[in-house]
Amino acid sequence: MTDQKLNALLKELTLEEKISQLLQLAAPFFEGSGSEGQITGPMAAMGINDDIVKNTGSVLGLSGAIETIGVQEAHMKKNRLGIPLLVMADIIHGYKTIFPVPLAIACSWDLEAAEQSAAIAAAEASAAGVHVTFSPMVDLVRDPRWGRVMETTGEDPYLNGEFARAFVRGYQGKDLKNDLTRLAACVKHFAAYGAGEGGRDYNTVDMSERQLREYYLPAYKAALDEGAELVMTAFNTVDGIPAAGNKRLMRDLLRKEWGFDGVVISDWGAVKEMIPHGVAADETEAACKSLLAGVDIEMMTTCYEDHLKQLVESGEVDEALIDEAVLRILELKQRLGLFENPYRGANVDREREIVMSAEHRQAARDLAVKSCVLLKNESVLPLKKEQNIALIGPFAQNGDILGPWSWLGSKDDAVQLFEGLKSKTSRIVTAQGSDIESMTEEQLEEAVKAARETDVIVLALGEHSDMSGEAGSRSNIRLPDAQLELTAKLKSLGKPMVAVLFNGRPLDLHGVYDVADAVLEAWYPGTEGGAAIADLLYGDSQPSGRLTMSFPFSVGQVPVYYNNFNTGRPQGAPDAQVRYVSQYLDIPNAPLYPFGYGLSYTTFAYSDASISSDRMAFDQALKVTVKVENTGEVAGEEVVQLYVRDLAGEVVRPLKELKGFRKIKLQPGEAQEVAFILTEEQLRYHHSDLSYTSDAGEFAVFVGPNSRDVLQALSFRLTK
């Protein structure tokens, strides 16, 4: 359909039909859905009738080619002008083939693998009839108490931006209209959703605009620069105004400053939630403020549907604003080719062929291997085939390893850890030991008995999926007491002990890291998790994951992150006093495990760091090089990381900022020179007047395997 025809179509719509295009409803409202008629509770109170449904612009939560084709077919017959539905869904880290959670994917530091995971998710979901995914989530997070850290890629704005781009490329490909194996990407949650006070979901966010622009906005911008078609609003306030009604955020920044002309959609119920937020007296005011702010689609509340018409008739809302929103929605449908092919990629035969295919499962296994992070290893790993193994813990034979946002992923399809280890050795016994949050005497006795007769204990510990994810905030981020008690009891047997952790957030690991001889952070590793972990434990694959979010020493440090400021009284300065410095009296300032950290089964040595010049002109790039050598006995992958510090800025600058990374593979004894190009553009930051520029002056450069263990700083001066 041409732009001219789109505009003609818009003119044919009545005001009521246009307003309904701005409404998104869940699957049970639509004829032909598997959940048709299952409208209870809050949905039943919405007052949705058939006239509204037949004019609705989009649906969320449909699954399967038969269902999506059936719903679209029924809808097209009922809609007066035959306007197709947009089918949207939460395809976060896989459709049915579930990859590790996004925080784990980020720990791979492998952008190509991340892109491939999104492409596979898109291929499966598009065959099932989905058009739009509510992904990537690019919220920067510094607080592990927040349950949705598992959806993010960590605490660094540069790295988050790189992964945002990779996910968008994977979902959308190069030709969204004609490549029917792709989905439109919706970047979320705009903006700063990950900075809720106290780590509590949906909570207040309050920060300076400079901090917002410096740390929280770059990843959204990166996703949009890569071509993301949609933006989802956040639940939280931004400078005192909920995002769903924040004109300055949506109209001024997103549309005018950044030039975004795609669709903006609210999160579930966020428009109506402006009433309890306290910025709208009623649904009429909520509808008015959201539309004026630039929200095109209202998800699962009916403020627009029930009140926009009267707002237009009273003159409070210009109908032209509704036309703009509807046109953006129609243009998205056009870019997806829905007017020519309303069923798009939905294909029962193709769905049957590719969903959960062997190729897709292998890709999930490979990425799970890359995503696990070895945090500790005192010569226990890799395991030996001749060793007798006791696999103990609530995750020993547990399919709850997909994560809380896996939607259509099946726990029954997940490779459990026992299943994975059993494929490697017959010398294994297992016992549950405890439930996730409780333990019986019988469970403990069974675990002790199993462990006594073996050479090595593998403990499978963690959080059940409801303990993280949306609305999964926790003030205590240690493992439940039952698991810590089990760990301590088994340690008393004097056996070597390996802890494998299944969780959605960085944890306070007291009672585990200080007890176990080895700790492998597996996160929620997805469909092939047990197989991938077995590959790692037995050395058939090498651990190469590196943290993208710091693990706190204690929850009392939170937020704790690597790119922090120094303060005027820094701890550890040469002339620092003992007491009157910025410190805790009872715990270290530093996290237990820093950003970028991870071990391998081999060791790497860094040497011969150099910089091409001690001066950088504004139009000149510098080359930073370092020699990295595999000094161990097996091949391994290393993530070489480049950090920079601006020693004297116009505003305070972080102690370190990630500016580049390279993932390299080296054979035993092999050395490689790793090079980075550093430009003036990478030294820019937001000044007190919000200008984005660099300053002439001294800079320090660090290279190393993580943000803590870096070589002595190189330096250069930026000159005008």
From TrEMBL:
Q: What class of enzyme is it?
A: hydrolase
Residue ranges that the Swiss-Prot or TrEMBL entry lists as coiled coil: none
Q: Which InterPro entries match?
A: Cellulose_deg_GH3, Fn3-like, GH, Glyco_hydro_3_AS, Glyco_hydro_3_C, Glyco_hydro_3_C_sf, Glyco_hydro_3_N, Glyco_hydro_3_N_sf
Is Hydrolase among the key words of this record?
Answer: yes
Q: Which residues form the Fibronectin type III-like domain?
A: 638-707
Q: Name one Pfam family in it.
A: Fn3-like
UniProt-recorded Gene Ontology molecular function terms? beta-glucosidase activity
Annotated EC: 3.2.1.21
Record's keyword terms, sorted: Carbohydrate metabolism, Glycosidase, Hydrolase
User: Which protein family is it in?
Assistant: Belongs to the glycosyl hydrolase 3 family.
Instruction: Name the NCBIfam families for this protein.
Output: PRK15098.1
The name under which this protein is listed is: Beta-glucosidase BglX
Which source organism does the UniProt entry give? Paenibacillus anseongense
